[in-house]
Design a protein that fits this description.
mainly beta, about 350 residues, Porin, 14-stranded antiparallel barrel, two-stranded antiparallel sheet
Length: about 350
């Protein structure tokens, strides 16, 4: 066990060194793309401001740390959620996971973002041509998670990312890799988590919308079709380290404190803190706060979060309902509703 733990520590150090050379921090703000990868899902994680990197479990862990997907009381889980995002944008997410004996847990999730219709404008018709288009943003992820020991779990998620803006589109792949270590340093209730998100090649837009009719001045030739070559963009990679601690209260009441540090490839670092109270693992109250000291005060729009959840088991089926609230500067607050079934 000690030899195995040393290998885990070495692997973590290599991850940190690799990401340190890859990340750029706040000096690259606004230069990345595929921002839909950063839109969170999962009411439990959102309600504690995303600080549960070391404590995420079940379907909620698909976004926060794939290592936690294997940690579930049910063999199969199905979940759906809806979020009222900023500027009347809706986010729908569906996920399913199942445990396979001696192999691990496999999960699939699908997230779509509905923006609504946008008027088509051109140089000749800057006020609109009368036509509209509907942007489409879709991510589809496949997760594998395994509990290596009663303390250590690992997980990886591969995500297909697609964006469509009328007749122009881009697609790519992103990977999340995570680890969770429970009872760290033989301290009961102390958990450690580490995750790298959105690692992958650059994406680039292509399509007929990038073709235009052009002519060369002083050349006696008819106008031709010119295709604009767009610049590639990188994915919004992040690196996170988190801790969770659950002190013993009594058999009925549980209290869990979480903290997380997030290094962003295209924005300032973030610090997140959360608190969760549960009664007989049935009723949950959650609250959290996130901050980014190095970001300008007007640039960082997130802050307080809170939420609640109910989990009820009946005849082999566990029904869970969750809600999360996130306060956002300049926009209406986010409201997330979620329902999960466990078998």
């Amino acid at each position: 066990m000690k030899y195995f733990s040393k290998k885990i520590i070495v692997a973590l150090l290599l991850l940190v060194i690799t990401f340190d050379s890859y990340a750029g921090g706040g000096n690259r703000t606004g230069t990345g793309g595929a921002a839909q990868l950063l839109i969170p899902v999962g009411t439990a994680g959102m309600a504690i401001a995303g600080s549960g990197i070391a404590t995420a479990e079940g379907l909620d862990a698909i976004f926060w740390n794939p290592a936690g997907v294997a940690n579930s009381l049910n063999n199969t889980n199905i979940g759906f959620s809806h979020m009222n995002y900023i500027a009347d944008i809706g986010v729908e997410n569906g996920a399913i996971s199942t445990s396979i004996p001696d192999i691990g847990t496999v999960a699939f999730n699908l997230k779509s973002i509905s923006v609504g219709e946008i008027a088509v404008t051109t140089n000749q018709y800057p006020d609109g041509t009368g036509r509209t288009f509907k942007p489409q943003y879709l991510t589809a992820g496949l997760t594998y998670s395994r509990q290596l020991t009663n303390r250590i779990a690992v997980g990886v998620t591969g995500t297909l990312v697609t964006e469509s803006l009328g007749d122009a589109s881009a697609s790519g792949v992103a990977f999340n890799v995570g680890l969770i270590y429970k009872d760290l340093a033989d301290i009961d209730g102390l958990s450690f988590g580490i995750v790298m998100k959105n690692l992958g090649p650059q994406m680039k837009y292509d399509g007929s919308a990038l073709s235009t009719t052009a002519s060369v001045a002083d050349w006696k030739r008819s106008p031709g079709i010119l295709k604009i070559d767009t610049a590639p963009f990188e994915l919004p990679s992040t690196f996170e380290i988190g801790f969770g601690y659950m002190p013993y209260v009594d058999k009925a009441n549980r209290l869990q404190v979480t903290a997380d540090f997030q290094n962003n490839n295209f924005s300032g670092d973030e610090y997140k803190f959360g608190l969760e109270y549960s009664y007989v693992k049935t009723f949950y109250l959650r609250a959290g706060y996130s901050t980014s000291p190095k970001s300008q005060s007007e640039d960082y729009i997130y802050g307080l979060t809170c939420g609640a959840g109910i989990s009820y088991a009946m005849e082999g089926i566990t029904l869970s309902v969750g809600y999360a609230y996130r306060d956002i500067k300049y926009f209406d607050a986010n409201h997330v509703f979620e329902i999960n079934l466990g078998f």
